[in-house]
Design a protein that fits this description.
alpha+beta, 5-stranded antiparallel sheet, 17 helices, 19% strand, globular, sulfite reductase (NADPH) activity
């Protein structure tokens, strides 16, 4: 019997000479603003995607012009921390080398640029390099940006957890020198053959996402990741982690063999064994993962297809260490703490709400200028959050007034947020994302206005509800873990999902398919009315919709999500 034909991307990786492909030739060709089809897959490993302005596609086609191609580049910033000096460089790059003139904070706790012309790519990456930043492995079939809960209250524990997140990110970088050769003009070493000890020549079957959580906060949505580490402390000192694996949000409309999934608990591991277990999980996925059907190639499917017990045994075998019994831990709020929060050593942290993560200057809200001015005087660090917000961290008490004054002056502070708006996120979607079927970022603020109005109407404004919107089912804003999830189906149409837990420990389930705003709001109006009248004390909206039978609880994603 002949072997199954592998997915196209597998052959691209095999033939790429460790991710080099013909990227350099494509970069040198300025006749077109695009790369070849094959190189469009390989450049993801270098941290960027090819896109075009979909709002202008038809107009340019009529003018017999190629689409207005540009690139989205995502930086690798483990734990979301950068210095004020780095932020000033990040800001300058956005203003001089992108057509969007903005910075976007992502749901993976980093920043990305939109609207980069091909001719500016190399200059931009070299600018990041001078700022001690890079975009290596920010995309592609590798371990992507490692998230870490930026808990400002438990600051000492956060510092310990952050060190683990950074070690994971650095240790699991690809070894290929392709990035350095193509973008940083480093000389190719002809006598040294690349060896990828973790990834192998074909890297992973699909993208791999990792997060470190510091309970009780769960802003990193640890259970939605391929691999998660939940920090366990004794007397305020980090002693290890509960390891969870097999989460992932992506699915495909109408294909029931695909589904989002939350990670399984595997047990407790000591801090000293984190790298061993991370490598073990990733190499099992490398060797066992599906390389035939990319829609079934994430770690979540590997665990489902091979079984929890077999996967766990193989991980323990490769790590050379057995899991201990998982430790009891409380998983709580997924939101950010807005405003000032006091940490340790008399330091303060100011969390700023950035709607959909878009940092740009607008009338009455000069957000980009404001962060630039803060960066010029700030002596601590900047921390991006997984909810697309920014923390001005480690501010001395005597510097608070000046920082706050700048934030208020530029519209970064002062707006009264509803509890729900502060817990809600959206992906970029149109006009730049090639996969988007509907709006998200551009429409989301107005949609939340409607949600706020409905909550006020029914007297439930005090209750935070996790609302998330994406333009497609790939799930970048983690909509399937939202109490109210909207997933784009077509322009102006969404699937409505309900029933996830507030804490992010249970998925939601589709309630209505392919509906427009009026029907969505009508449905929520009725449910909010019932919630106001019938909820139990302390009952969250997601739990309420499950209890009254609006949707069934998703306990086993493979069986329940579509069933």
């Amino acid at each position: 019997m002949s072997e199954q034909k592998l997915a196209v991307n597998e052959y691209l990786k095999i033939d790429s000479d460790y991710l080099r492909g013909t990227i350099q030739e494509g970069l040198d060709t300025q006749v077109t603003g695009s790369f070849s089809d094959g190189d469009q897959q390989l450049i993801k490993f270098h941290g960027f995607y090819q896109q075009d302005d979909r709002d202008l596609r038809n107009e340019r086609k009529e003018q017999k012009l190629e689409p207005l191609y540009s690139f989205m580049l995502r930086a690798r910033v483990p734990g979301g921390i950068c210095s004020p000096a780095q932020w000033l460089d990040v800001d300058k790059i956005s203003s001089t080398l992108t057509t969007s003139n903005s910075i976007r904070l992502t749901t993976r706790q980093t920043f990305q640029y939109h609207g980069i012309p091909k001719r500016n790519l190399k200059t931009l990456i070299q600018g990041l390099d001078r700022a001690a930043l890079d975009s290596i492995a920010a995309c592609g079939d590798v371990n992507r940006n490692v998230m870490c809960n930026p808990n400002p209250v438990e600051s000492k524990l956060h510092q310990q957890a952050y060190a683990v997140a950074k070690e994971l990110s650095d240790h699991l970088l690809p070894h290929t020198r392709a990035y350095a050769e193509i973008w940083l003009d480093e000389e190719k070493l002809l006598d040294t053959e690349t060896h990828e000890p973790v990834y192998g020549k074909t890297y992973l079957p699909r993208k791999f996402k990792m997060a470190v959580s510091v309970p009780p906060d769960n802003d990193v949505d640890v259970y939605t990741n391929d691999l998660g580490f939940i920090a366990i402390a004794e007397q305020g000192e980090l002693i290890g982690f509960n390891l969870v694996a097999g989460g992932g949000m992506g699915s495909t409309h109408g294909e029931v063999e695909t589904f989002p999934r939350l990670a399984d608990d595997f047990g407790f591991i000591k801090t000293a064994d984190v790298i061993k277990f991370a490598e073990a999980v990733m190499t099992v996925q490398r060797d066992w993962g599906n390389r035939v059907n990319r829609k079934r190639s994430r770690l979540k499917y590997t665990i489902v297809d091979h079984g929890y017990d077999a996967f766990k045994a193989e991980v323990e075998k490769r790590a050379g260490v057995k899991f201990e019994t998982k430790r009891d831990v409380v998983i709580g709020d997924r939101g950010d703490r807005y405003g000032w929060v006091e940490g340790i050593d008399n330091k303060w942290h100011l969390t700023l709400f950035i709607e959909s993560g878009r940092i740009k200057d607008m009338p009455g809200k000069t957000l980009q200028t404001g962060l630039r001015e803060i960066a010029k005087i700030h002596k601590g660090d900047f921390r991006m959050t997984s909810n697309q917000n920014m923390i001005i961290a480690s501010v001395a008490a005597e510097d608070k007034a000046e920082i706050e004054g700048l934030a208020r002056k530029h519209g970064l502070l002062g707006e009264v947020l509803s509890a729900t708006r502060g817990h809600s996120i959206a992906c970029v979607a149109l006009p730049t994302c090639a996969l988007a079927m509907a709006e998200a970022e551009r429409y989301f603020p107005a949609f939340i206005d409607h949600i706020d109005a409905l909550q006020q109407k029914h007297g439930i404004s005090e209750q935070a509800i996790v609302v998330r919107m994406t333009g497609c089912p790939n799930g970048c804003a983690r909509p399937f873990a939202a109490e109210i999830g909207l997933v784009g189906k077509a322009p102006g149409r969404y699937n409505l999902y309900l029933g996830a837990s507030f804490e992010g420990t249970r998925l939601n389930k589709m309630h209505k398919e392919n509906i427009q705003e009026a029907e969505i709001l009508s449905e929520l109006d009725g449910l909010f009315g019932r919630y106001a009248e019938e909820r139990d004390a302390g009952e969250t909206f997601g739990n309420f919709t499950v209890r009254i039978g609006v949707v069934k609880a998703v306990l086993d994603a493979a069986k329940d999500f579509h069933g």
